[in-house]
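subagent[fold] <- orchestrator: predict structure for attached chain, return tokens only, no commentary.
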Amino acid sequence: MNNKDFITTLSRQCRFTTRVTQQLVDALVGQMSAHLEDGTPVTINTFGTFDVKKKLERVVVNPATGQRLMTPPKLVVTFKAGASLKDYIQEKGGTA
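subagent[fold] -> orchestrator:
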């Protein structure tokens, strides 16, 4: 599902215009991004938790040349599904 399909489906379900729905989704993503940038995890009950983790520097190997390179440390966003989401996926048999 792409962004346009998501907004259209959500706007029908909530009975908002697509414009208002897009603004609400943008506000939600903006707030989540701001909290994650500050290092604060974002938990959505029954869905899961988004968090920022630091990946340490590591050695990687270029498969084409065999050259070993050091990658710098970086921050990555992680997601841990909540129990309700896991149960829902199991009930559906893992298919959407």
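orchestrator: received. Logging for downstream: Residues 18-37 form the longest helix (20 residues). The helical segments are 3-14, 18-37, 83-91.
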